[in-house]
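Progress note, sequence design subtask.
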């Protein structure tokens, strides 16, 4: 199976960086992952900061809609996946912690208390300001809650990642 990861051409921000990192990691595990650029892809659309990931790329227009492929699209470009009917569609919720879908700090604190009140590592994490694990855990739960309660229009996809 080939996995196409949809990325805007010529852009250098945290979202595309995460997508290039995903492509690189999948390739290291033997997955045929390829970046598929949309937008202005004249010449070489790979931003110089992404060359180190050594990801092959194509333009989205050259990706054929087949059952044997998967499309990973960020939640900010879901419309790019609409052209694919047969392909598996995966929405990667990259910006859940800094977007219009941002959860409240109170909800995050309540989640931590409810889920991790007796976790001995949480005190160290708070003191060392290393809360990444807990933040990512909450983000996944939060995205699932958005999907479950249909708080926003959720695209039809085979998988949602956060």
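Output:
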């Amino acid at each position: 199976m080939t996995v196409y990861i949809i990325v805007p051409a010529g852009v250098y921000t945290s979202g595309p960086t995460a997508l290039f990192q995903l492509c690189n990691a999948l390739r290291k595990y033997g997955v045929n992952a390829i970046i598929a650029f949309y937008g202005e892809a004249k010449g070489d659309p790979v931003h110089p900061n992404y060359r180190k990931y050594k990801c092959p790329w194509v333009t989205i227009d050259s990706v054929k809609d087949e059952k044997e492929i998967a499309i990973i699209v960020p939640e900010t470009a879901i419309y790019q996946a609409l052209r694919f009917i047969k392909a598996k569609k995966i929405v990667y919720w990259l910006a859940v912690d800094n977007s219009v879908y941002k959860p409240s700090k109170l909800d995050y604190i309540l989640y931590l208390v409810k889920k991790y009140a007796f976790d001995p590592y949480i005190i160290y994490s708070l003191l060392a300001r290393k809360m990444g694990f807990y933040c990512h855990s909450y983000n996944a739960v939060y995205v699932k809650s958005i999907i479950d309660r249909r708080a926003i229009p959720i695209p039809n996809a085979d998988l949602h990642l956060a």
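The CA atoms of residues 75 and 130 lie 27 Å apart. Work on this subtask will continue into the next period as scheduled.
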